Amino acid sequence: MNQGIQPILRLAEASGKRAGKGRIELLEAIAGTGSIAAAAKAVGLSYKGAWQAVEEMNNLSREPLVVRTSGGRHGGGTVLTPHGLQVVALFKRLNEEYRQFFAALGRGMEDFSQFVQLIRRMDMKTSARNEFLGRVKALNRGPVNAEVILDIGGGNDLVAIITQESVDNLGLVIGKEAYALIKAPWVIITAADSQLKTSARNKLCGVVSRCQEGAVNGEVVIDLVGGKSVAAIITNESIKSLGLKEGIPACALIKASHIILAVTS
Hints:
By secondary structure, the chain is an alpha+beta fold. The chain has three domains: about 10-120, Orthogonal Bundle (Arc Repressor Mutant, subunit A), CATH 1.10.10.10; about 130-180 and about 260, CATH 2.40.50.100; about 185-255, CATH 2.40.50.100. It is about 30% helix and about 35% strand. The chain has seven helices and 14 strands. It has helices at about 20-35, 35-45, 45-60, 80-105, 110-120, 165-170, 235-240; strands at about 10, 20, 65-70, 75-80, 130-140, 145-155, 155-165, 175-180, 190, 200-215, 215-225, 230-235, 250-255, 260. The strands form four sheets. A five-stranded antiparallel beta sheet has the order 7-6-5-8-14. The chain has a five-stranded antiparallel beta sheet with strand order 9-13-10-11-12. The protein has a two-stranded antiparallel sheet with strand order 1-2. Helix 1 (about 20-35) crosses helix 2, helix 1 runs antiparallel to helix 4 (about 80-105) and helix 2 (about 35-45) packs across helix 3 (about 45-60).
């Protein structure tokens, strides 16, 4: 095997749960320190980057892997759930077997580097800040477009409007698993008690867990029931006018036409 190439295990199963060496190291650090800040420092991530990784893992898992707890250095600690501990333990066992398999595979291939380059091209990433794994709950076809209702867990549904052609290309049927991709700038934030009526089909409510202002815009993350979260990019002025800060109830509004659906091949 090419000595410059080291095998790194990444898991992608039918349920949609994904994990790789970097993510597992972050989970291990959280388990060892009980602090997201300390864990981020241990694995070389920024505090924000660590939380984004945790939020994505929770959103793509049927059960939360990481939860906040009361107490701790900043008023709340961070711990792995029993399911999170199981994922880490399983990954360790599989990783050793994977390394042995990878070594044998490398010895049997004449042009191993070309194989690796092909695998890297297949490992697609998206720019969407919000990724939710769900299951098609309802599918209403129209003359041109179709309404797809995706159950993402925790009592939350997402409604997406896509073309009939997309429904057929993705092979969407009742019960099929799919991903909902939503860019953060497409998410509108409102106060939880707002009486405002909008045309947005989707309303996800929870509690603000992070609120970070930038030069012009800021990022707001809302924790939802069931351990998932949704992130939005809004102006600093909007953050101030809505009085957004950690612990404040808020809702995320998302138009059905702003949700992109994807499935694994």
